[in-house]
Write a structure and sequence with these properties.
about 90 residues; mainly alpha; about 0% strand; membrane; BofA; transmembrane; Pro-sigmaK processing inhibitor BofA
């Protein structure tokens, strides 16, 4: 059963790769998403270790980075607000 799932995964990955290669807009979208991802991680890293928000430390994990990628700077405020409310 595992081999069937592996074949399905490989086939769908190859089909996705062909769609990305044939469509030039996809490269622009992937590049833009990667830049936003790196900028969000860098912003969270700088905020954690610069001491600007003393007493708080925002963890660098996929959930927090994804929130900051989608929402931008308000995403950082959201994560900090959730941290204050829950802890």
């Amino acid at each position: 059963m595992k081999s069937v799932w592996m074949i399905i995964l490989l086939a769908s990955s190859l089909l996705l790769l062909t769609v990305v290669i044939r469509n030039r807009l996809s490269f622009r979208w992937i590049r833009r998403f990667a830049l936003h991802l790196v900028a969000a991680a860098l912003a969270l890293y700088v905020l954690n270790y610069s001491g600007v928000i003393s007493g708080f430390e925002v963890p660098l994990n996929p959930a927090t980075i994804g929130t900051v990628v989608l929402l931008g700077l308000p995403g950082i405020a959201l994560v900090l607000g959730l941290q204050v409310a829950l802890f």
